[in-house]
Design brief:
By secondary structure, this protein is α/β, with parallel strands linked by helices. 38% of the residues lie in helices and 23% in strands. It has a domain of 171 residues: Rossmann fold (3-Layer(aba) Sandwich), CATH 3.40.50.150. The protein has 10 helices and 10 strands. A hairpin with a 2-residue loop joins β8 and β9. The structure holds benzoic acid. The site of benzoic acid has 8 residues, from loops.
Amino acid sequence: MGEEPKTFPANWDAALYDAKHSFVWERGTDVLALLAPQPEERILDLGCGTGHLTARIAAAGAHVVGLDSSEEMIAEARRNFPELEFVVGDAQDFQFDKPFDAVFSNAALHWVRQPERAAYCICEALTPGGRFVAEMGGEGNIERVLEGVRRARVAIGSPVEEGFNPWYFPTIGEYASLLETQGFDVTLALLFDRPTPLEEGEAGLRNWIRMFGASFCADLELKKQEEFFFVVEQQLRKELFREGQWRLDYRRLRVMARRVD
Ligand code: BEZ
């Protein structure tokens, strides 16, 4: 039997993530407010990355554990916040001896390949009545970027297969049903546009692709990759580049749910 697919990608450049993509956790403030961590609560930060939101949860007085599938991210999180607890683990296949009052997740669950398994593990990790608060890419997220990538690949003579989007961007209906099936009551679900400005001006889009969408050009030789970046930028400039900055068409799915007793 083949190995079960894991959360991807396997390798992250955690320092680059911290240096140039801090918007990922900086934009997590609202969902953190929804979590409203309380002193002494036991909270899991699922897909914690380099630990910045984990630290904000800890600052509220909660006992927090950060979990991420990337060893690079966890190493950086430990360097950033040596006083906090971080573990390497797969969002689709984890368990803890002691249950949590809440599981929190920001910008991570669209990376999982088997969302129903992740929801199962989250539910099992909670105390009865415990809450799950998450934000991720929702249906329609970065649709223009994906279309630009598709068109650029055609233009350089290396078309990608239909359905090449590697991420999970569900609708409210799809994700709420999945959570219900795994033992949750869904108490809030929102899908909303959140245009997201990137750092580094002109270079922002190619930096973003190198960081998050490396699979879009990993099969291309260096010269062809340059051609690819040039054409993607051409394709998307009119819609997504304003006043010297790329603004990606992010769409967020925000949910709050409780484990049924
Ligand atoms: C997101 O946060 O929506 C996202 C980030 C990287 C790749 C795809 C989606």
